[in-house]
């Protein structure tokens, strides 16, 4: 059936649509809604490749379309949110001696877009890197987008500890997070893929373990769990890499 070859691309376009909606909320500094729409977009991104495989509808067009959609949902949105957070500090706080009239800080918020630039480079590199067929080299853009947008969402919740609010209100901390984000996106660190290829334990045990722990973290810590989950993802990948190196040596 000719229609089935378009199903994965339609799912990818749903990801892009969610990214566009997230952008609108980010422009309005409604970080909680922006985070929700990024999550929905990443959900669609999770399944487009799976349906492309089971429907045998993989194509060069789908690969490029996936990266373009990810560029918006997982690249432009987190960069804009970081920019908006830095602008918000200038508008609302004087304790760091930085204001909209201050020339130094006039350029400061744009540092947030280093996340978008690094995401673009990472996505382009992914498309031509033959090492990343079954795993990732560097933090995937969806994981990074969840990390950044969850931090912004936490600032809107009354349940967030005051210490975290203070840290996320410090422009220098935010710039440091932006730089770290850009580094992790393109670092030569092998990370396991979160996408499901086959529904069985043997091929997906790492993903299943990660998913169970992540759900438990979300239940107990809510928004605060997202950065912890990303950290757990990196640490679990490092443990797997060390174990694989031992078994192959």
Describe this structure in words.
With 249 residues, the chain is mainly alpha-helical. Helices cover 72% and strands 2% of the residues. It contains 10 helices and 2 strands, in the order αααααβαααβαα. Strands 1-2 form a two-stranded antiparallel ribbon.
What does the secondary structure layout of this molecule look like, with pairings?
Elements: H1 7-27, H2 31-54, H3 60-92, H4 103-107, H5 114-128, E1 135-137, H6 141-154, H7 162-167, H8 171-186, E2 190-192, H9 201-221, H10 225-248
Antiparallel strand pairs: 1-2
Q: What key phrases describe this protein's structure?
A:
249 residues, mainly alpha, 2% strand
- What's the end-to-end separation, in Å? 48 Å
Shape summary: globular
Extract low-pLDDT stretches.
Answer: none
- By DSSP, the count of extended strands is 2
Work out the radius of gyration.
Answer: 19 Å
Main sheet? 2 strands, antiparallel
Number of helices: 10
**Mean pLDDT, nearest integer?**
85
Secondary-structure element sequence? HHHHHEHHHEHH
What is the helical fraction, as a range of percent? over 70%
Strand order of the largest sheet: 1-2
Q: Which secondary-structure class do the elements indicate?
A: mainly alpha
The oligomeric status of these chains comes to single chain
User: Proportion of β residues?
Assistant: under 5%
């Amino acid at each position: 059936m000719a229609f089935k070859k378009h199903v994965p691309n339609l799912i990818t376009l749903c990801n892009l649509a969610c990214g566009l909606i997230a952008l609108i909320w980010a422009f309005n500094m409604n970080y909680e809604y922006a985070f929700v729409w990024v999550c929905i977009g990443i959900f669609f991104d999770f399944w487009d490749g799976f349906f492309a495989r089971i429907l045998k509808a993989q194509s060069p067009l789908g690969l490029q379309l996936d990266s373009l959609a990810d560029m918006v949902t997982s690249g432009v949105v987190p960069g804009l949110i970081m920019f908006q957070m830095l602008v918000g500090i200038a508008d609302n706080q004087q304790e760091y001696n930085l204001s909209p009239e201050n020339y130094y800080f006039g350029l400061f918020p744009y540092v947030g877009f280093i996340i978008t630039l690094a995401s673009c480079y990472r996505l382009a590199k992914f498309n031509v890197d033959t090492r990343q067929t079954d795993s990732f080299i560097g933090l995937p853009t969806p994981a990074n987008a969840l990390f950044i947008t969850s931090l912004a969402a936490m600032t809107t919740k009354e349940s967030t500890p005051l210490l975290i609010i203070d840290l996320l209100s410090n422009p220098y901390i935010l710039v440091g997070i932006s730089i770290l984000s850009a580094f992790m996106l393109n670092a030569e660190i092998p990370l396991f893929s979160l996408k499901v290829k086959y529904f069985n334990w043997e091929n997906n045990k790492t993903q299943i373990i990660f998913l169970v722990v992540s759900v438990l973290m979300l239940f107990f810590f809510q928004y605060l769990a997202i950065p912890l989950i990303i950290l757990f993802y990196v640490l679990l990948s490092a443990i797997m890499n060390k174990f694989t190196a031992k078994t192959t040596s």
